Amino acid sequence: MIRMKAAELCGLREFRLVDAALPDPGPGEVQVEVKAVGICGSDMHYFTEGGIGDSPCNYPVVLGHEPSGVMLKAGPGVSGIEPGDHFALEPAVPCGACEPCGLGRNNLCNNMHFLSSGGIPGFFRERVNLPAHNLIAVPKHVGLKEATLVEPIAVALHSLTFPSLRAGETVAVYGTGPIGLLTIAALKLAGAGRIWAVDTVPHRRAMALAMGADVALDSPGSEDQILKDTGNRGVDIAFDCAAGIDTVNQCARALVKGGRLVYTAIPGAIHMPFFVPAFRKKEISFFNVFRSNNQTERARDMLSEHVVRFAPLLTHSRPIDEIQGAFEVASSYVDGVGKMLVIPA
Predict the structure, then answer these.
(1) Rounded to an integer, what is the distance from CA 76 to the centroid of its chain?
(2) What Rg, from alpha-carbon coordinates, does the chain have?
(3) I want to staple 254 with a disulfide (CB 3.0 to 4.6 A). Which of 21, 155, 223, 336 is the partner?
(4) What is the pLDDT of residue 10?
């Protein structure tokens, strides 16, 4: 049993540092020193709103599910992993036995053990025990800060599995926070044609252009501009990565007839208004995204090959002692923040 520092969200917009205990790793487990953790949009929902939709936050809770770390010691039955090896850390532990798992949809596991959700502590702490297969080795040219991008890149790649992108197809991405930016980069690498990025925050629009978007628009009137740019046709695919009160409808209005809409966003509201005429008259196909599914190793490989493309997203970092300020900056979209990292150890 060792003692370690952990950051608990103990109330609305309130973190505290606590001394926590961690046992030795059990059979098939590895103990990891957590080196960096990205702040996700879902973390910010818990911080600013006290929950996500119909999932209230049960305080206190250790958040964080975009981690990287260094192996410290292995439990019984673990081999082939050496102390000091670098890893991206997969937060999802599906059961492997339920109906969704049997269908290859592990992200929908009926008995999911997801670190940072459902009362299970996440990675805003100095150490963690994980099943050995949840450690995704990263090459040394991918730094431990960059390795935190494996989990959100996997989400972006999972979202791309739904619309069956064909080379050269046009795309609009609404919301250019980290997931939107990673979606843009992944779309370019997948062969997308012209990409319109839409966001209300100026520095995020600039980052979208740097990540591969061809056009960056402010949100008001964006769909009119996209229709104008496409000869009143619309784009083939639209991604809602914003979760704004009307962004899903802006996506629908920007789409071609028969277009595909991918909803990667995590809305805070339980119900969202749909502008039904656009969906019905255009016969739009709608795809909803929940986390990622069997994309982690592919995300690691993409990051390893294109680390220079993805690394500029990492703009800020703070030690775990300053996690309160890190969340204040990230949730306020100030100081040119792209992805904020918390550094536990």
Answers:
(1) 32
(2) 20
(3) 223
(4) 97
Residue 307 near residue 146, CB atoms below 8 Å: yes
- Provide the residue ranges of all domains of the chain, joining segments of one domain with +: 2-151+294-343, 163-288
Interatomic CA distance for residues 78 and 133, integer angstroms: 10
Share of residues in the chain with pLDDT > 90 (%) = 94
Instruction: State the Cα angle at 164 between 163 and 165, rounded to 5°.
Output: 95
Confidence of residue 268 (pLDDT cuts 50, 70, 90): confident
Span 306-338, pLDDT tens digits = 999 999 999 999 999 999 999 999 999 999 999
Say how far apart CA 60 and CA 320 lie, in whole Å: 16
Residue type at 188? Answer: K
Mean pLDDT in the chain?
Answer: 96
Closest to 100 (Cα-Cα) out of 291, 296, 299: 291
Instruction: Select the CATH number that applies to the domain covering 2-151+294-343 from these four: 3.90.180.10, 3.40.50.150, 3.60.110.10, 3.40.50.1460.
Output: 3.90.180.10
On the question of a cis peptide bond just before residue 60, with omega within 30 degrees of 0, the verdict is yes
At the topology level, CATH places domain 163-288 in Rossmann fold (3.40.50)
- Beta-carbon contacts of 221 under 8 Å, excluding residues fewer than 6 positions away, are none
Helices 150-160 and 296-305, packing angle to 10 deg: 110
pLDDT in tens, 106-147: 999 999 999 999 899 999 999 999 999 999 999 989 999 999
Select from 120, 119, 182, 135 the least CA-distant residue to 34.
Answer: 135
Q: Can you give the pTM of this predicted structure? A: 0.97
Question: Residue type for 41, please?
Answer: G
C-alpha to C-alpha distance for 298 and 27, rounded to whole angstroms: 27
**What are the start-end ranges of the E strands in the chain?**
2-11, 14-22, 29-38, 51-52, 55-56, 67-74, 86-89, 92-93, 113-114, 127-131, 135-137, 171-174, 195-198, 215-217, 235-240, 255-263, 285-288, 314-319, 339-343
Residue 108 is classified by DSSP as: G
